[in-house]
Amino acid sequence: MSPTKLSTVVLDAHDARELAGFYLRLLGYVVRAEEPHWVLIGPPPGSAGTSLAFETEPAYVPPVWPDRNPGDQQMMLHLDIEVDDLAAEAERAVAEGARLAEYQPQNDVRVLLDPSGHPFCLWTRASR
Questions:
Q1: What's the pLDDT at 49?
Q2: Which residues form the Glyoxalase-like domain (predicted)?
Q3: Where do the structural domains in the chain lie, given as residue ranges?
Q4: Residue by residue, what is the 3-state secondary structure of the chain?
Q5: What is the phi-psi region of residue 115: left when phi exceeds 0, alpha when psi lies from -120 to 50, beta otherwise?
Q6: What percent of the chain has pLDDT over 90?
Q7: Which CATH class is domain 65-128?
Q8: Which residues of the chain carry a pLDDT beneath 70?
Q9: Which of 2, 27, 39, 66 is surrounded by the fewest CB atoms within 10 Å?
């Protein structure tokens, strides 16, 4: 039996290209493949990192984080992104199109929402 390997995390969105563009700018990734309603991005050649794909889903409903009411669309996953300067990178993420989540459960981690509403966390090595 050959070993299996997780290759990509796929996020749904109303507009796959728009969300891919946000993460391209945020992470410094490059486009690896694209189709009309799907985009695969990853680290530049020779760099390590996890690939992300984005798929257009016309019926996409953004998650509510933290979930407050029964029936809210729950967060299914979130991305943890390691940074060197938490404040500067949070500010840059907001400038690129993210928004700071109202609820911040930790002082040394910043929870943000990408343009499609997916939560992601910025953190520094000192905070883990």
A1: 86
A2: 9-122
A3: 7-58, 65-128
A4: CCCCCCCEEEEEECCHHHHHHHHHHHHCCEEEEEECCEEEEECCCCCCCCEEEEEECCCCCCCCCCCCCCCCCCCCCCEEEECCCHHHHHHHHHHHCCEECCCCCCCCEEEEECCCCCEEEEECHHHC
A5: alpha
A6: 70
A7: alpha beta
A8: 67, 71-75, 127-128
A9: 2
- CA distances in angstroms from 24 to 32, 33, 43, 92, listed in the order given: 11, 13, 9, 13
- What are 66-77's pLDDT values in tens digits? 767 776 666 577
Q: Which position has the token pair 């990853």? A: 42
Please give the DSSP secondary-structure letter assigned to residue 125: G
Q: Please give the single-letter amino acid code of residue 77.
A: L
CB 65 within 8 A of CB 101: yes
Given the candidates 3.30.720.120, 3.40.605.10, 3.20.20.30, 3.40.1350.10, the CATH classification of the domain at 7-58 is 3.30.720.120
